[in-house]
Amino acid sequence: MERKSLIGLPFAELMRYFKAYDLTAMQARQTWEWMYRHGVRYFKDMTNLSLSVRKQLEQVYSCERLPVQYNKTSTDGTQKWLFRLENTENSADDTTFEAIETVFIPEETRATICLSSQVGCALQCRFCRTGTQGYTRNLTLYEIVAQVLSVKDAIDDWPKDPLTHRLKNIVFMGMGEPLLNYEALKKVLEIFMDPHGLAFSRHRITVSTSGITPMLERLARECRVPLALSLHASSEALRSDLMPINEHYPLKDLMQAVRMYPALSGTDKVTIEYALLKGINDSPADARALLSLLRGIPAKVNLLTLNPWEGAPFTPSSPQIYATFSRILTQGGIDCFRRRSRGQDILAACGQLRANKVYSTS
Ligand code: SAH
Ligand code: SF4
Questions:
Q1: From CA 226, how far away is CA 203, in angstroms rounded?
Q2: 341 lines ligand 1 (CB under 6 A)
Q3: Ligand 2 centre from 276 Cα, in Å?
Q4: CB within 8 Å of 23: residues ≥ 6 apart
Q5: Which atom of ligand 2 is the closest one to the Cα of 128?
Q6: What is the pLDDT of residue 216?
C-alpha cells in the first residue's frame, strides 16, 4: 500500500485520520508539532509518541519531502531547486515528469522563499518566462507545503526556538497564478501561520497576483495577507497587450478591488509591481499615468528590473529612465522602491522560472 503523506493536510483532517486509527487528538497535535515545528520527517524520531504508535504511523503515513532533481546556487547566494512532483518518481518512463521550481533568497537578517502555486501558468504575460511553458495543473496542498519544508531542511532551519528561524518571509511569486489555485492557497496559508507549527507571521506572507479581480475580496476577508499586484501598465490597452488576463478582468474593476483590499484585510499598503520595459511603459507620461491611477489607493510601487530570458520580447529600461520614473512617482507622493534582482545567473529571478515537463535524468 502506498503511504499517504501527512504534509499539507489541514489539522482538522489530520485529526480525522488519526481518529480512524484510534489515535487521539493529543497524538495528532504532537505529530503536527514534530512535522512543522521541528521538521522531523520520520515517525521513528517522534520520541514522545509510543513506539507502537510510531510503528503504526510509519506503516500508513509519510512525511517525505519532494524529490530534488537539482539545486543551483547563484553568485549572490540565491538558491533554486527543481522538484519532481508526486507519483512521477517511479513512473515506468523515468525521463518524463512534471516539475516545479522554488527559490530561496537569503538576506542578512531574514530570508525569503519564493513559492510556486501551479505547474506552469495559463496567463501568458508576455514578459514572463513561466508563461511560455503553458499550464499543466494546480499544485496540491502537499506540493506547496513541501516546498517550504524541503528548503528549510536544505538550509538547516529547524532551531529549537522558532523565533530564531532564518526563513521569515514567504512570497507567492514563483510559477503560476496563486489566485487560480485559491482553495489550496487558503489552506496552506493556515498551515504556514499556525502558531503550533511553522508560525509564519501573517504580515510576512505576500500573495502576488496578475489581477484575478473576483478573488481579491475572498483573499482579503479569509486570508488577510499582504497583497502584491502585478500591474505593469496603467492603461487598459497596454495592459491587455502585455497581460492578456486584463481582457477578462479589466483595470477599472481591478483597481476598485485593490482600493478596498487594505481595509478589508487589515493589511498595510498594496504593493504594485511594475517592471520597466524599454520604450513600452517607461516614459514620464507613463509615470504620470501610474500616479493618477493610484490616486487615493493605499499603495506603494515596487519598480522591477525586467529579468531577461532567451526570446523575451522586451529589454530592460536604462538606469536613467528608471531614475526619472521613480522621481516622478516619489514627487507625486507615492512610495517607490526597487526590488533588487536576485539569482539572475541561474534563472531564479522573478519571471525567469520555467520547468519543462520532460527532462532527461541522464
Ligand atoms: N502569477 C503571479 C505571481 C508569480 S509572477 C503574478 O503574476 O503576480 C511573480 C512576479 O514576477 C510578478 O510580479 C510578475 O509580474 C513578475 N515578473 C514576471 N516576469 C518578469 C520578468 N521577466 N522580469 C521581472 N519581473 C517579472
Ligand atoms: Fe503567470 Fe504571473 Fe508569469 Fe503572468 S507573470 S505568466 S500570471 S506567472
A1: 6
A2: no
A3: 16
A4: 53, 56, 57
A5: 3
A6: 98
Check pocket membership of 118 for ligand 1, CB cut-off 6 A.
Answer: no
Q: Which atom of ligand 1 is nearest to the CA of 306?
A: 23
Give residue-wise pLDDT tens across range 159-175.
Answer: 988 788 999 999 999 99
Q: What is the pLDDT of residues 93-104, one digit of tens each?
A: 556 788 999 999
> What's the full length of the chain, in residues?
362
Q: Is 169 exposed, middle or buried (0-12, 13-18, 19+ CB in 10 A)?
A: middle
Measuring from atom 20 of ligand 1, which residue has the nearest CA? Answer: 351
Whose CA is closest to atom 3 on ligand 1?
173
Q: Which ligand neighbours the alpha carbon of 177 most closely? A: 1
Where do the domains of the chain lie?
4-62, 105-352
Task: Read off the pLDDT band of 109 (50, 70, 90).
Answer: confident
- Catalytic residue selected from 128, 223, 336, 350: 350
Q: Is the minimum distance from the CB of 173 to ligand 1 under 6 angstroms?
A: yes
Determine contact, residues 92/81, Cβ cutoff 8 Å.
Answer: no
Specify the pTM.
0.94
Per the annotation, the verdict on 101 as an active-site residue is: yes
Pick the CATH number of 4-62 from 1.10.10.10, 3.40.50.2300, 3.40.50.150, 1.10.150.530: 1.10.150.530
pLDDT for residue 361: 35
Q: Does domain 105-352 have CATH number 3.30.200.20?
A: no
Give mean pLDDT, residues 331-335. 96
